[in-house]
Amino acid sequence: MKKVLFLLFLLASFGSHAQSIPAYSAEMLMKRASNDDTIYVINFWATWCAPCVHELPEFNKLYDHFAGKPVKILMVSLDFKEGYPREIEKMAEKKKMREELVWLNETNANIFIPKIEDSWQGSIPATLVLQHGQYFRQFWEGAIKAESVENVVEKQLTYFNR
């Protein structure tokens, strides 16, 4: 019986988000989002940010809308080190997040923000849409709706596929 419980515990551990929430620096994040053939929608959020949590279902809509298209959604948690990965995992499960999750392990906004987006004033939620190969960038500070991002990404997909 103990062996069965231990095996169930191991299987449950492998199925959790713990293994799938890597810690990234700003440089690693921007490198991750540098495939020229892909449009990246990158959302900066935190579990303690009420507008961020309220906005999470919009990214589930985007995930579904762009399934099978060259669009990747990255959800970048700015949670404090004490909440990583436990709090992020709990929120991901609660909100049924399927998007790729990463944790930004940097704490000095004056250093990491300019590496990501010069116009960013530091508030969250914030969303960056980019495609490196086409030198395309669109940035929003504050909560957004899926339709706003869909419109921008669809136009970029149309332009890119001409």
Can you summarize the main beta sheet? Answer: 6 strands, mixed
Give the count of structural domains: 1
Termini separation:
61 Å
What does the average pLDDT come to? 89
Taken as a percent bin, the fraction of beta residues is: 15-25%
**Strand tally, please?**
6
* CATH fold-level assignment: Glutaredoxin
The share of residues in helices is 40-55%
Q: From N to C, what is the helix and strand string?
A: HEHEHEHEHEEH
Rounded to the nearest angstrom, the radius of gyration is: 17 Å
Instruction: Please state the second-level CATH architecture.
Output: 3-Layer(aba) Sandwich
Ranges where pLDDT stays below 50 over 5 or more residues in a row are 1-19
CATH domain class: Alpha Beta
CATH superfamily: Glutaredoxin
Structural classification: alpha/beta
**Oligomeric composition of the shown chains:** single chain
Spatial strand sequence of the major β-sheet: 1-4-3-2-5-6
Overall form: globular
If helices are DSSP runs of H or I spanning 4 or more residues, what is the number of helices? 6
Can you describe this structure?
With 162 residues, the chain is of the alpha/beta class. The protein has a single domain (13-157), classed as 3-Layer(aba) Sandwich (Glutaredoxin), CATH 3.40.30. The chain contains six helices and six strands, in the order αβαβαβαβαββα. Strands 1-4-3-2-5-6 form a six-stranded mixed sheet. The protein starts with a helix and ends with a helix. Mean pLDDT is 89; it is low at 1-19.
Could you name the key traits of this structure?
alpha/beta; Glutaredoxin; six-stranded mixed beta sheet
